[in-house]
Design a protein that fits this description.
The complex is a heterodimer of chains A (about 220) and B (about 400).
Chain A: E1 6-17, E2 20-32, E3 37-41, H1 48-55, E4 63-68, E5 71-72, H2 78-88, E6 89-93, H3 104-114, H4 119-132, H5 148-159, E7 166-170, H6 178-195, E8 198-203, E9 214-219, E10 222-223
Chain B: H1 4-17, H2 19-57, E1 61-66, H3 72-78, H4 84-92, E2 96-102, E3 104-111, E4 114-123, H5 127-135, E5 140-143, E6 152-155, H6 157-163, E7 173-176, E8 179-187, H7 193-196, E9 198-202, H8 203-210, E10 219-224, H9 230-249, E11 256-259, H10 261-304, H11 306-314, H12 319-358, H13 370-396, H14 400-405
Parallel strand pairs in B: 4-9, 6-8
Antiparallel strand pairs in B: 1-10, 1-11, 2-10, 3-4, 3-7, 5-8, 6-9, 7-8
Helix pairs in contact in B: 1-12, 2-10, 2-12, 4-9, 10-12, 10-13, 12-13
The chains are: A alpha/beta (about 220), B alpha+beta (about 400).
Bound molecules: adenosine-5'-triphosphate and magnesium ion.
């Protein structure tokens, strides 16, 4: 069988508050295959975001391992992790997480600056991406001047800046009305279908499962299905 | 290699979003740099003015003063004198060519009903005039030196043109402590108010008018023989003066100073160097305060931007990139503050210089050089980086997942 692009092996994440330890993830095993779209659903506080952070190398497991294309990531330095996040993973968050004082275009080109892409090329690529997410003409708008749906589309464009293979989205439609939410989900689904991206979407919303190849249910830090 | 150009652009945009705070911090650093640049260029200017004045004395002249080196100013003010025996001893020391005792007193000069305090100097028309003309650069620009036995004076250019509301002309009568004398010559300016405010009268008349014994001196200049070594002659003079003291008073207490041009330069250099050091030391405190301002601004900025830092890390910024963004911000604050402070400092030093060309108390030139400007710019940039170091490091070390959880 094909090797999964992301593999979690018995992953624990434990937070300590004084003497009290809370295991937010309790032995998660998970395979994500290339060119699939997966949703993770579960109640609030069940550990979805924590799980996604580990999938995206924003955080490291306290126990257990995370493999990226068969490579054990626990051996990697902070710089290596930053490099992988920059080149191979794109993030989309519920709160959009755009830099408020930068324009839409500047937000999109920022990941390319960190990859030392030449400025002219970065701007060119940024414009193409704005077009892809249907935001032509909004280059110079600040996040505060854009609607929620528009901000989330800027965030998706930013996630695509360095042509990553993997897109991780943490409740991308959570702050949007159903019409805008649907547009965003279609955009993500298209990235999977047309651009062959591997997509993982966290959601509360079971309707979203309809767009996905598989759905994982998490409860109290354990995968129940 | 980092993408410094791109990171610098990010840093500049960050500064622009907090304009007021950035400017206030910049002003803080500018004040410190301004003080240091002004004080340095002026004190360096004073140092050069003094050293060029001492140089104009020439190596051939040795100055002998009463008192000891530790209490130089005290004996200068206290009216202690070298007596006739001392002067004879100096004259007899090996290598001394001519001796010229310096005597002066303050008198009231009255011209066209206007009274001003002036310093009246005794002029020895033989040896003294030779020394003044040959080695100290005194020259009459119009008129003549006084003739022996005549009540004639030469006056400095400041007395001639500025001291009285009407300019003094050759042939005019001035009264000194009530005695009328005629102005026979006006001296060429030596570029400083002290020298240009002298009034000189022939020795015998000086004695008669003031009752001061011109065989003694509050200061004695000795011109050494052609080709003699100033240091050696100074030693001879010292020995000769010590002998007189042994013989006449039975004491070997050294109550005089023998100063060659070199030695005077050293003393003045030391005094001024210490002064400069102290002044710049105090100004540096202002720089440190400015630097603390930078650190404060940067820490605040890091705290406010934790989430933004998390975002940048999520999209691929390395710790070092975050570090450089913040260092470039604080360095830029330092650099702009430094540029402003340097500019203001130069401007202010130039204004002071201009003031002294109009009121020539001393010939003060503000000392400004390109390397100094370059140094002060580089210094202020590095200062910004130094005080931004800890805030930048704290930003770089933030964990991406934790920072992203923070809500603003
Ligand atoms: N840094 C932390 N320190 C302590 N506890 C934490 C930390 N991060 C997360 N938690 C806890 O871990 C649990 C899981 O959090 P997580 O954000 O993963 O939940 P979630 O499933 O994404 O919830 P939601 O649907 O509300 O976003 C929560 O109880 C949360 O309080
Ligand atoms: Mg969550």
């Amino acid at each position: 069988m094909k090797q999964p692009i992301i593999k979690l092996e018995d992953v624990f994440k434990i937070y300590k508050h004084g003497d009290v330890e809370t295991a937010v993830l309790q032995g998660v095993n998970l395979d994500v295959f290339e060119n699939t779209i997966t949703s993770i659903i579960g109640p609030s506080g069940s550990g979805k975001s924590t799980l996604l952070n580990i999938l995206g190398l924003l955080d490291v497991p306290d126990k257990g391992k995370m493999f990226l294309e068969g490579q054990d990531t626990s051996k990697l330095s902070f710089d290596d992790l930053a490099d992988i996040r920059g080149k191979r993973i794109g993030f989309v968050f519920q709160q959009f997480n755009l830099v408020q004082h930068l324009s839409a275009l500047e937000n999109i080109t920022m990941p390319m600056i960190f990859q030392k892409k030449n400025e002219g090329e970065a701007i060119e690529k940024g414009r193409q991406l704005l077009e892809l997410v249907n935001l032509r003409g909004k280059e110079n708008s600040r996040p505060g001047q854009l609607s929620g749906g528009e901000q989330q589309r800027v965030a998706i464009a930013r996630a695509l800046a360095n042509d990553p293979e993997i897109i991780l989205a943490d409740e991308p439609t959570g702050n949007l009305d159903s019409r805008n939410g649907q547009a965003i989900m279609e955009l993500l689904a298209n990235l999977n279908k047309k651009e062959q991206k591997t997509v993982v979407v966290i959601t509360h919303d079971s309707n979203i499962a309809a767009y996905c190849d598989s759905t994982i249910i998490i409860k109290d830090g354990k995968i129940v299905k | 290699m980092e993408n410094f150009k791109g990171l610098f652009k990010i840093a500049l945009k960050n500064l622009k979003t907090r304009k007021l705070r950035s400017w206030l911090t910049i002003i803080g650093i500018a004040i410190g740099i301004f003080l240091v640049v002004t004080l340095f260029s002026l004190s360096q200017g004073i140092k050069e003015a003094v050293s060029s004045q001492l140089k104009s004395l020439g190596d051939e002249i040795i100055t002998i003063m009463p008192g000891d080196e530790e209490n130089m100013f005290l004996s200068m003010m206290g009216g202690v004198k070298l007596n006739k025996d001392d002067i004879e001893a100096i004259k007899n020391a090996e290598g001394v060519d001519k001796v010229f005792p310096y005597n002066y007193t303050a008198v009231t000069g009255r011209y066209l009903g206007e009274a001003k305090q002036v310093l009246l100097f005794s002029l020895d028309l033989k040896d003294g005039l030779d020394v003044l003309k040959g080695y100290q650069g005194f020259e009459v620009s119009s008129g003549n030196w006084p003739r022996p036995g005549r009540r004639e004076i030469v006056i400095g250019s400041y007395i001639a043109s500025k001291q009285f509301s009407t300019a003094v002309q050759i042939g005019d009568i001035i009264s000194l402590d009530g005695r009328k004398v005629e102005v026979c010559g006006i001296l060429k300016s030596l570029g400083n108010k002290n020298d240009d405010s002298m009034v000189m009268i022939e020795e015998s008349i000086f004695r008669e008018m003031t009752g001061i014994d011109t065989n003694s001196g509050s200061q004695v200049m000795a011109k050494i023989e052609e080709g003699a070594d100033p240091a050696k002659v100074a030693k001879n003079i010292e020995e000769s003066l010590s002998n007189v003291r042994q013989r006449k008073r039975g004491t070997d207490k050294k109550d005089f100073m023998v100063l060659t041009a070199d030695k005077m330069g050293d003393i003045a250099g030391n005094v001024l160097g210490t002064l400069q050091f102290a002044v710049i030391g105090f100004a540096s405190i202002a720089i440190i305060v400015g630097g603390i301002g930078i650190a404060n601004t940067m820490f605040t900025s890091v705290r406010e931007r934790i989430r933004e830092i998390g975002i940048m890390k999520a999209i691929g910024a390395k710790d070092s990139s975050i570090n450089y963004i913040f260092l470039l911000e604080s360095g830029t604050i330092g650099l702009i503050g430094g540029a402003g402070g340097t500019l203001l400092g130069i401007l202010f030093a130039k204004i002071i210089e201009w003031y002294f060309t109009i009121n020539p108390v001393i010939a003060l030139k503000a000392y400004i050089s390109f390397p100094i400007i370059l140094f002060s710019l580089l210094f202020s940039f590095l200062l910004g980086c130094l005080f931004g170091y800890l805030p930048a490091r704290s930003a770089a070390k933030l964990k991406p997942a934790d920072s992203l959880r923070r809500y603003e």
